Amino acid sequence: MRLPHVLASAAVSIDGFLDDDTPERLVLSGPADLDRVDAERAGVDAILVGGDTVRADDPRLLVRSPQRRADRLARGLRPSPLRVVLSSRPVAPDARVLTEGRELADTVVLCGPPDEVLDRLAAHGVVRLMIEGGARVHRDFLAAHAVDELQLAIAPRLVGAGPRFTGVPLQGHLVETRRVEQDVLLRYRFGDADTRWLAEACSLAERCPPSASAFSVGCVVVAADGTVLATGHSRRDDVLDHAEEVALRDLDHADPRLPGATIYTSLEPCGQRASRPTTCTQHILDAGVGRVVMAWREPPLFVGTPSGAARLAEAGVEVIERPEFVELARRPNLHR
Ligand SMILES: NC(=O)c1ccc[n+]([C@@H]2O[C@H](COP(=O)([O-])OP(=O)(O)OC[C@H]3O[C@@H](n4cnc5c(N)ncnc54)[C@H](OP(=O)(O)O)[C@@H]3O)[C@@H](O)[C@H]2O)c1
Ligand SMILES: [Zn+2]
């Protein structure tokens, strides 16, 4: 996977349109979904839109919730992510991305094909990017195979005519469906199985309740046929919870799919642990999961003891490390 990790987010009507064909701004999804999008915004380093979206909708592209702004500040980030406008011409000086919220976020205007734009953002330290449209920008990034995750909120109305992102043949994989009041959220991922599930584990790590001292980790347990058996993240049910521990807690250890399953985790499973008697390495061995794919290895906490990965490998578990995911896995731990 290349950086930044790209989340494309859009609201569509039942008939698949992003807007109607009138000049007025059409807000398709309801307040609960707008708040969900606000939470996603708070979890990225930059938000990107096309020049026509700025001209048509005049968005501010800011995190709205004061609490989410404060949480970002506490982590050493700007209160709101960098605002990126893709355009071959200057943005109108009275556009709200330039005039509003300057104390909260910067705005840059970029021009160029998706690969170049992503390289430039990565060089500026953007690890997670959110693309909020419009149609052409979504289409171009999907066609360039530059989208890792697509979040589509389907609003309960028909629009009849307007922009839509047709014309890109691409196979996605459904990772979640969620009802958000009157809207339905569909989450899709793209890419090969190991890439999409490890990226999903890293995204789940962003959901961890904040902690000044403990790691924020995400994990997904996937059967050989691609069925998601369980997911977990640090401190999900209790402050001492580890991601792998809570995911495996949800599973019946007699499930015949576990030996053929893979556990994807953003951090190497712990091999030594002070908080509870059983390490995640031991939980994985007890559950009989046959394969572990991980993003990030920390130097061992206790010198001279074998790491979790080493113990798993010794016990016959296939262990795969994907170092190109390290920055994505580290992102929710930047305060450490
Ligand atoms: N429902 C939703 O979630 C949602 C979200 C956002 C927008 N929308 C709707 O989508 C519509 C706008 O979509 P759209 O397809 O017309 O436009 P768009 O994708 O917002 O913007 C396209 C324009 O951006 C500039 N651009 C795009 N890629 C570029 C690149 N790589 N380098 C430089 N410039 C680039 C070009 O214009 P210039 O170079 O001339 O600037 C291009 O014409 C509006 O109706 C809006 O309401 C809906
Ligand atoms: Zn652990």
Automatic annotation (TrEMBL):
Protein name: Riboflavin biosynthesis protein RibD
Function field: Converts 2,5-diamino-6-(ribosylamino)-4(3h)-pyrimidinone 5'-phosphate into 5-amino-6-(ribosylamino)-2,4(1h,3h)-pyrimidinedione 5'-phosphate.
Matches recorded under PROSITE patterns: CYT_DCMP_DEAMINASES_2
Family: In the N-terminal section; belongs to the cytidine and deoxycytidylate deaminase family. In the C-terminal section; belongs to the HTP reductase family.
UniProt cross-references to Gene3D superfamilies, sorted A to Z: Cytidine Deaminase, domain 2, Dihydrofolate Reductase, subunit A
Domain of life: Bacteria
Taxonomic lineage: Bacteria, Bacillati, Actinomycetota, Actinomycetes, Pseudonocardiales
Magnesium in keyword set: no
Keyword list, A-Z: NADP, Oxidoreductase
InterPro entries named among the record's database cross-references: CMP_dCMP_dom, Cytidine_deaminase-like, DHFR-like_dom_sf, RibDG_C, Riboflavin_Biosynth_HTPR
Entry keyword Acetylation: no
CMP/dCMP-type deaminase domain mapped to chain residues: 192-320
Pathway membership: Cofactor biosynthesis; riboflavin biosynthesis; 5-amino-6-(D-ribitylamino)uracil from GTP: step 2/4
Entry EC no(s): 3.5.4.26
Catalyzed reactions per annotation: 5-amino-6-(5-phospho-D-ribitylamino)uracil + NADP(+) = 5-amino-6-(5-phospho-D-ribosylamino)uracil + NADPH + H(+); 2,5-diamino-6-hydroxy-4-(5-phosphoribosylamino)-pyrimidine + H2O + H(+) = 5-amino-6-(5-phospho-D-ribosylamino)uracil + NH4(+)
